[in-house]
């Protein structure tokens, strides 16, 4: 019988994962919330289900796997990001999987919501509402998405879903990939290596690329300056793709019309950071993936598929445990 250890310090995807595992026969599931219990349970587990963790906790997990007897065969992440573990390195001989694209529709929806919030002055409208202020002068600051050009930097699962939604608003979409491949979700395709060539055309920049050594700090002062001063920047990927100080400075200097960010670097954004009070900014606290039962169900099913795959290989004669 396979033993599944589920380290779940937060409620994220917990119920959906447990529901999906309940439907898998021939397994034992143990759920723990504390890092100490996770480390203690690794030696007796075949599969470790978990989310990303800070580097110091990730290191403890990896070290516990290294000194175990080799029973653990797979780590399956319920989170899209794995930066904490990537920073310390994954253990040798352990399959690492995750819920590829599971929450892409929800994150894309949030990206569009941030775009509309900035362009339609929803933040200012919300303040006026709380103050009982009927201020129609805001109409001069409103902008429509119709007829705009959106540059989507990173045309993976999230980027494609963003493009599909933006095109419904009448937006001309340009998708940038590491290697441009035919993709019907956008009007134009290009390479991220040619990013600078596309910046002057962008009314909206949607950042949805993976954070790698090559993309860290992808957007800084020079690239913000290269955008039109009417441009809006949206980041729903990872905070490390953007120089947060440079973004705050560009907004303060009027080099950008606004920004919507769900992620920052550092995170959480420190109290008193100038981005909090920069003009035209909307900040959400890394919650773009929330709110969709369908996304949670996809994450849960990805866990179940990982476990069933190990069961199938065991039945076929592969070594498991």
Automatic annotation (TrEMBL):
Keywords: NAD, Oxidoreductase
Gene Ontology CC entries for this record: cytosol
Pfam families: 2-Hacid_dh_C (PF02826)
Keyword presence, Calcium: no
Superkingdom, natural source: Bacteria
SUPFAM superfamilies: Formate/glycerate dehydrogenase catalytic domain-like, NAD(P)-binding Rossmann-fold domains
GO MF, one annotated term: NAD binding
Span of domain D-isomer specific 2-hydroxyacid dehydrogenase NAD-binding: 112-288
InterPro entries: D-isomer_2-hydroxyacid_DH, D-isomer_DH_CS, D-isomer_DH_NAD-bd, NAD(P)-bd_dom_sf
PANTHER family: 2-HYDROXYACID DEHYDROGENASE YGL185C-RELATED (PTHR10996:SF178), 2-HYDROXYACID DEHYDROGENASE-RELATED (PTHR10996)
Name of the protein: D-isomer specific 2-hydroxyacid dehydrogenase NAD-binding domain-containing protein
